[in-house]
Amino acid sequence: MSIRATDTAADERFMTQALRLARRGWGQVWPSVAVGCVLVKDGAVIAQGWTQAGGRPHAEIHALVQAGEAARGATAYVTLEPCAHQGRAGPCCDALVTAGISRAVIALEDPDQRTSGQGIARMRAGGIHVDIGILAEEAQAVAAGFLLRVTLGRPLVTAKVATSLDGRIAAHTGASRWITGPQARAFGHRLRAEHDAIAVGGATALIDDPMLDCRLPGLAHRSPVRVIIDGRLSLPLTAQVVRTAALHPTWVITRTDSDKDRQQALKDAGVKLLTVPIHDGQMDLPKALGLLGEHGLTRLLIEGGGRLIAGLLGADLIDALHWFRAPSVIGGDGIPAIAAYGINTPDLARRFRRVDTLFLGEDLLESYTIER
Prior knowledge:
The protein is an alpha/beta fold. Helices cover 29% and strands 24% of the residues. It has twelve helices and 18 strands. It has helices at 8-23, 59-67, 92-99, 118-125, 136-142, 144-152, 182-193, 202-208, 240-243, 260-268, 285-294, 306-314, and strands at residues 36-41, 44-50, 75-78, 103-106, 129-132, 156-163, 168-170, 197-201, 225-229, 250-255, 272-276, 278-279, 282-283, 299-302, 320-325, 335-336, 352-360, 363-370. The protein starts with 7 loop residues before the first helix and ends with a strand.
């Protein structure tokens, strides 16, 4: 159904607000989707909601509870089609009808087969005027992780690297602290808070012994699931992520033929073990990501190392890239950010589209999405 021209400017303004609200759920709502909802009456916002931590309540319910009886006759701006299936709570499409909403403006139809057009149909049958498609492209970006999990069975994969101007992540000695400054590092922790999980390769976990948590003041509770992709199970039981696995979710993805005694030792330490088969002598990365999708993850942040990022690039499994660049030059004997992945001529290289740039102190952050 087309949007009425006289409403377009206001519709875009209120949908923009709903999209900002939806982003608050990033990293907190999996396996659900981060949705925003704004209720408007007589040109003024009367309530707003977003999907709450753990996925419940949904954004629409969050907003309707605030509005109470004032919701009758209001317009609901929702970033994704209200659900039509019975979960822990009733369908949101029915809740909007019961509340007496007169109009719903929806950015995207939900591809989940449990809803997929049914929520819209039930709202229209309940007397709600429904318009679809306002700021659809922006809404796709906000819900990208959920949409990929539903359609392709895997999470949105974002790689994050911090390098010198010549693309090095460490000196030849392995020393890497710190290439970028405090503002860039703080932004990196913000990215962790906005993702369901953070992953590194086994070599990176072994060498750096990272905690992979969010250390921004007030956001420690938003630390993501820690994922170590370690085909040979080189991760020692003394690693920080293993020693703290009972307190913070830690998953290790390994090959099906990895040492069974080491698998059991990690399980005994509180680590969740996920095994995937071998493909061409290497761990099957598409199956690894599919396994993460099966476990509900929608947004995955990759923080290294270079071989893992190269493997994902070679399999065309990276969707977005955050590249932090410091104003320094390390030289050719430094460690490159990305290992070789079989590019023989420049035209075969993975190409990205720059979508944003941001100065963080003396460092530059460039954000990209993949061109497919």
